[in-house]
Design a protein that fits this description.
Uridine Diphospho-n-acetylenolpyruvylglucosamine Reductase, domain 2, 20 strands, Uridine Diphospho-n-acetylenolpyruvylglucosamine Reductase, domain 1, cell division, alpha+beta, about 25% helix, MurB, globular, Uridine Diphospho-n-acetylenolpyruvylglucosamine Reductase, domain 3, 5-stranded antiparallel β-sheet
């Protein structure tokens, strides 16, 4: 194997939080064959394996990782007609930009999301009214159980809100390539689905706008919330949204609604969005804010972003334990106020909330 290999390698620089201790060994793989060989070697020797793409969704413990960290740095963007294939290590924001330049709609509102293409199906990445599950046709992955490369069609990916089969079975699949079917709408975007985006664009929900305009508007909205990476801006030393939006049953929502009235007064309506039959999604950011954790909350080296209550940030000198202490404080505060337990979106390594 002609891969780069380092011993006792720092992992913090490979994450957007810039947190976490070293790995016993770090391998950087630039081809699918190198990825598979490194995974097989770890599996054959019983060595714990940590997969790292863009590092935008990882919280690594201060003690680091005892085992092999595999950085997937494969590259490749192939566009044929409206079909797009991305290597897992491809930078997602670059891929979105390429599709917009090519005049293809479907992922333009996912501009500015940090991380690699291979992570998008795992989380079913979504923002501003789009989710990758609506355009992914299939995922090429290495199956560690059968020790072979498999092609998983969309229908078998078990996509749901910020979830998938790949996330449900994290020890089984290693994403190698992701394939999408985009739309040629003569240079126009997909129908705008998100109210905030529609307002910013000055159009109604369901309207289409020029692709570049949609992408630039989303980038401006994300930047305003500290959700576009900038080494000089500590508000972006984060994993973006740290908590997922809670999805409640009708019964749970009724209890929650009563708690809101009790705490904030009659007539205060919490955010509520349909999430399937008998289920309602509410806003984690709203819950955090109304529980007293406002923008910039905290006095230590880990604080809530000054731009968005849903982002927990490293102000430059934080440890992972500092970050987790803040996260636990927020979880406990929201539960005490509204009876809802927030769930972290980033993957934790060697630690837990």
């Amino acid at each position: 194997m002609h891969v780069q290999e380092l011993q006792d390698a720092p992992l913090a620089p490979l994450t957007t939080f810039r947190l976490g201790g070293p790995a016993t060994r770090l391998i950087t793989a630039t081809t699918d064959d190198e990825v598979i060989a490194a995974v097989r070697e770890a599996d054959d020797s019983g060595t714990p394996l940590l997969l790292i793409g863009g590092g935008s969704n990882l919280v690594i413990g201060d003690k680091g990782f005892e085992g092999t960290a595999l950085r997937i740095a494969t590259r490749g963007i192939a566009l044929e007609g409206t079909a797009l294939e991305l290597a897992a290590g491809e930078v997602w924001t670059d891929a979105v930009a390429r599709t917009v330049e090519a005049g293809l709609a479907g992922i333009e509102c996912l501009a500015g999301i940090p991380g690699s293409a291979g992570a998008t199906p795992i989380q079913n990445v979504g923002a501003y009214g789009q989710e990758v599950s609506s355009t992914i046709t299939e995922v090429v992955a290495y199956d560690r159980r059968t020790r072979e490369t498999v092609v998983v069609p969309n229908a078998d990916c078990a996509f749901s809100y910020r979830h998938s089969r790949f996330k449900a079975e994290p020890e089984r699949f290693v994403v190698l390539r992701v394939r999408f079917a985009l739309e040629d709408a003569s240079g126009l975007s997909a129908p705008v689905r998100y109210a905030e985006t529609a307002r910013a664009l000055g159009v109604g929900p369901g309207d289409r706008v020029p692709l570049a305009e949609a992408r630039e508007t989303v980038l401006e909205l994300r930047s305003g919330k500290g959700m576009v990476l900038d080494a000089e801006d500590h508000d972006t030393w984060s994993a973006g949204s740290f908590f997922t939006n809670p999805i409640l049953t009708d019964e749970e929502f009724a209890v929650f609604y009563a708690r809101v009235a009790e705490r904030l007064g009659e007539g205060v309506n919490p955010p509520a969005y349909p999430a399937g039959e008998g289920r309602t999604k509410t806003s984690a950011a709203w819950l955090i804010d109304k529980s007293g954790f406002t923008k910039g909350y905290g006095t230590g080296p880990a604080r809530i972003s000054t731009k968005h209550t849903l982002a927990l940030t490293n102000r430059g000198a934080a440890t992972t334990e500092d970050l987790l202490a803040l996260a636990r404080e927020v979880v406990a505060g929201v539960h005490a106020a509204f009876g809802i337990t927030l769930v972290n979106e980033p993957v934790t390594v060697g630690v837990s909330l």
